[in-house]
Specification:
Keywords: Cell projection, Cilium, Flagellum, Membrane, Transmembrane, Transmembrane helix. By secondary structure, the chain is mostly helical. Helix content is 85%, strand content 0%.
Length: 115
Amino acid sequence: MKKFLLFLAGLVALTVLLVNLGPMILLGVSVWLLYVVFKQFMKTDSTAAKIGWVVVGLIILSIAVSNVYAVIGVAAAFVLYWIYKNWTSKSEELRSTKSDDPFTNFERQWAEMNK
């Protein structure tokens, strides 16, 4: 039942991630462009050029603010990563603890002693 719920949560997280992929890309590009505009603003000495860079920066900032909900997509990617890690750790743990062979515990302890 846990695997089924993890699968459903992963499916929902993947859907949210795919839906927010475009805004995530636009947010990343706009943040990068804001960095470039800031660097150009700091390089210029002319007042007219500084005003021009401020205007361009404000336009790009409005694009970044309009795509701020893309953080939901980043959270969905984190949830998907967490589900993947939880899925693999649980399956490995079950394989190592549940065994019909009575010598499995002895072999594991012997391998730990030989390290």
